Records
---
Amino acid sequence: MNKKHISEQIIKYCLKMEKDGLTSGTGGNISVKNENRIYITPSGIDYSELIPEYISELDEDGNFLGIGKRPSSEREFHSKIYKTRPDVKSIVHTHSTYACVLGCLKKELPPVHYLVASAGKKVPVAGYAGFGTKELADEICSVISDSNAVFMANHGLVSVGKTLYQAYSTALYIEFVSKVYVISLSCGKPFELDENEIADAVERIDSYLGSKKNLWDK
Ligand SMILES: [Zn+2]
């Protein structure tokens, strides 16, 4: 896989993220890890203006190698997640509305719908820290060990996967379930799946989303 191929896939998913309403403006970012390099969206450039040459190349520690445009201000947490979770090969960060709502309430997403299983048995909340800081990376990594998605308090969502397809799909599913949960709470007390039901869904969704050979296979 060369940088151009990976960059084209990152851009394809950035445009999808915008079309699917998972972010607004230049908010959010996407990265892919390939061997000892991290490829990440650049800082402050509209997704519609991205070209493969703009995608930033980092070393494993998140240092910018001078290839591509200036990297996303959130490269700190991307590189730390890859170190914390060696199984992860792609990360999607969004400012999607209902994930932000739950993040502002510091409220975990319980298994109120089987698609929570794309993240795990629930979606935990990482404590607040300023954007782009090492402290934010620490907060996220303290809760991401057994979940493929995390709400960032007063900020947004981060989701991870063995492929870009898995990380992106999880971001999309968790936004959908967050919306269902917030609406359900407004008119009653939603029922939750029991331990066996959610465990079964986790196993089946992981084999569906996480068993692809290539980073972007569907
Ligand atoms: Zn953000």
Note: The domain at 3-209 is CATH 3.40.225.10 (L-fuculose-1-phosphate Aldolase).
---
Amino acid sequence: MAGTLDPVKLLETMLRIRRFEEKVDQLFFAGKLPGMPHACTGQEASAAGVCAALEPGDLITSTHRGEGHLIARGVDLYRLFAELLGRRDGYSRGKGGTMHIADLSIGLLGTTGIVGAGIPIAVGAALAARMKGSDRIVVAFFGDGASNQGAFHEALNMAGLWKLPVVFACENNLYGMSVAQWRHQAIKDIAVRAQAYGFLGEVVDGNAVLDVLEAASRAVARARVGEGPTLLEMKTYRWCGHYGADPGTSYRKAEEVAAWKERCPVKRHTELLLKQGAITESELEELQERISNEVDEAANRALECPEPPLEAAQEDLYQAGGLP
Ligand SMILES: Cc1ncc(C[n+]2csc(CCOP(=O)(O)OP(=O)(O)O)c2C)c(N)n1
Ligand SMILES: [Mg+2]
């Protein structure tokens, strides 16, 4: 959870994300979950490591692949499942789905279906923090594909110019939908783009949670004392296709997927903790079971929650001045 540096807590967060995505997958393929899930399985370390570097008052913006960020920030799993299942206790009363989740109580400004849209929002929030004299910092999560958006460049320019307290957390999973990174940009390291805007860029192994935490903590510390933004590029990989119905097999080689699965962030961190004696086999089993039960209970409760009534379609709408 936010603010913790405990390596066992980092494992717990990653296990929770992994189990949550497994459950979503299960519900989706059973025909119980509408819409298209965009799982972050394989990318747990970037969400867990970055969020562990934050304080409770800090803010994040997230993406279409945001469940890991939300869970690492301490989202209510029941309300999250309810939203994904289109039930009335969901974050957007079951009318928005995974790309319409905001929870200011955990500093979550919102997920979005518009690629790159969270980046300028984070910069705006960082400017607001500066103007209010607060020491909060803001993290914008986004992918490699989003780093080609105009909004990315405009936001980084402004953040660099004004030395705003923001961390640009790029999860480079090597693909934007079915397009490999080498097909969509001429550079290998997205972090080099920071140089064009006058601040630091850093590449980190996005599947090594302690490395992510360390790099994110440095970036957060700099932002907090007024030294400006950092572009933190985390090299990682999504195990599944782009979204639920995409097997991801037509544009990726099986060997590539298998090689990245070998570098599983959860497995690597688990093995490290076992080797160091920070956790025993039986404690690990206990932890896995507790998280599994927690996720299952949240999902089962959400499945019991009713859908919003038909009239709710006309509620919660923004109508400036009303319709004529
Ligand atoms: C502005 C905009 N353009 C295109 C899309 C369609 N789209 C959805 S996800 C995606 C790829 C995003 O890639 P990346 O930023 O690398 O994130 P990832 O899916 O890999 O996590 C695209 C092109 C969109 N949702 N919004
Ligand atoms: Mg990507």
Note: The first strand starts at residue 59 and ends at 61.
